[in-house]
Design a protein that fits this description.
Number of domains of chain A: 2
Number of strands of chain A: 12
Order of helices and strands of chain A: EHHEHEHEHHEEEEHEHEEHE
CATH architecture of the largest domain in chain A: 3-Layer(aba) Sandwich
Strand content of chain A: 25-35%
Oligomer: homodimer
Strand order of the largest sheet of chain A: 2-1-3-8-7-6
CATH class of the largest domain in chain A: Alpha Beta
Helix content of chain A: 40-55%
CATH superfamily of the largest domain in chain A: MoaB/Mog-like domain
Largest interface: A-B, 72 and 70 residues
Chain lengths: ~270, ~270
């Protein structure tokens, strides 16, 4: 389970000034959770080498086994992710031949389609192939900048572009198999119950009892509707190595909750 | 300027499993930036007292002068924010009389409207008035749980509910005046330019020159459209004590960029 601790780091001033809504973090958190990973923390920092490096070091110290970094891999001056990662792990940036080959292949394909005129690797473009020493490039099926996989001690550091279509394509094609290899195949299962006609103060001890009897099921309550009207959504989640095991756990806990609530005069509906 | 360093912390498992899109962070980051604040980092953590406490302590150590925490103020068992903050600053949770009074007033109003039947302060409800010692409650015009303001050494710790309408109402009514009091009135100004017909490798040195000559203007490039087609959005931002000063800075930098780009055979459009 320790192998499955993830942190997500998104990079870009546009996130810190509220210009861009951080949909990448939600997409990654959902995907990682479905794969059976445990996302412990998500962080956004600015385009700043020192900040990026500090964030990576802090995540390592907190015990993350996977650091998924998103944004700042492009060719412009404000793309600083790889410099930040390199400084965090004290490795130089070196020209990666496989990354160059991947990019050349991509440029050739774009030239054939008539999208770009030049396929020459300018120094400016080569910046995207300068990876922290010991990294493996991850093929980008939807864009130019390759993703990066760097194993540092026991930590997998993965860098992905910030453009959602590129980030998602690299993750699904090249990161999912890596995660499965390390943490095995795990299944996430969840179910929501809508609870009405019971006051929150009666619900709390009842949920404590169910959580105590079902330690692998996490229950989160989300009050809905007008305050005081006591409509509450209960969200039950678990993950297990077999889907049926996860499902059985959730169904057992959901049944117990439902029985308790009905006994207390409340109403339950599945959503 | 040091007084204006903010960190935003959002709390809730639903964010870490990708169930909920983190719109609160974007809303807060935008508002704080418009007020002239500098958002240095945004963090999301789970409903876990230790994690919440660690996040607050780390933000203090990093030099944040404002920690805006969002989520986990309600009455249910998984609302743990105030316990986390209390542990971070080593203060006990104590029943805050002003918080109780604010909540009673709210319940009375809801009872008059016929929304709730009971206005009694059950122990369960009183949980929302147990604040870290030395805190001030912030009136919630849109819901029950009061916000919290705790001054710890030189750091302003603000806790807001996770329900967007409540978070926004407390922030606008009760936090904006506090921020203005400390950092003064500052103005954020930004402008975007669409650049086409210039290759990125030619744009980079040109932007470096403009940034060097305009150190208070931050320029961020966002490549748009199909890769290799060299459509780039440039986003120029600054903040100043007077709106006209901020505006002039941006206009000066935008003009310089435009002239350079046109000289290089590129095209510029304002958006």
């Amino acid at each position: 389970m320790n192998d499955a601790i993830f942190e997500i780091v998104t990079i870009g001033n546009e996130l810190l000034i509220g210009k861009t809504l951080n949909t990448n973090t939600q997409w990654l958190a959902k995907r990682i959770t479905e794969l059976g990973g445990f996302v412990k923390r998500c962080t956004s920092v600015r385009d700043n080498i020192k900040e990026i490096g500090a964030t990576v070091n802090e995540a390592i110290k907190r015990g993350a086994k996977w650091i998924i970094i998103c944004g700042g891999l492009g060719s412009t001056f404000d793309d600083l992710t790889l410099q930040g990662v390199a400084s965090a792990v004290s490795r130089p940036l070196v020209l990666n031949r496989r990354a160059v080959a991947l990019m050349k292949r991509r440029y050739s394909a774009l030239k054939e389609k008539g999208i770009v005129r030049i396929e020459k690797m300018t120094p400016h473009r080569l910046k995207m192939a300068m990876l922290p020493k010991g990294s493996k490039p991850l093929m980008n099926p939807a864009g130019m900048a390759p993703g990066v996989h760097l194993k540092f001690n026991q930590v997998n550091i993965i860098c992905l572009p910030g453009v959602p279509s590129e980030m998602q394509a690299i993750f699904d094609e090249n990161v999912v198999p890596l995660i499965r290899l390390v943490i095995g195949r795990r299944y996430f299962y969840d179910r929501s119950l809508n609870v009405t006609s019971i006051v929150e103060s009666e619900l709390a001890p009842l949920l404590n009892r169910v959580m105590h009897d079902n330690p692998q099921v996490y229950i989160k309550s989300h009050p809905k509707g007008v305050e005081g009207s006591s409509r509450i959504e209960l969200h039950l989640t678990t993950s297990a190595e077999m889907l049926q095991v996860a499902k059985n756990r959730i169904e057992k806990a959901a049944n117990e909750i439902s029985q308790y609530i009905i006994k207390s005069g409340g109403k339950v509906e599945s959503t």
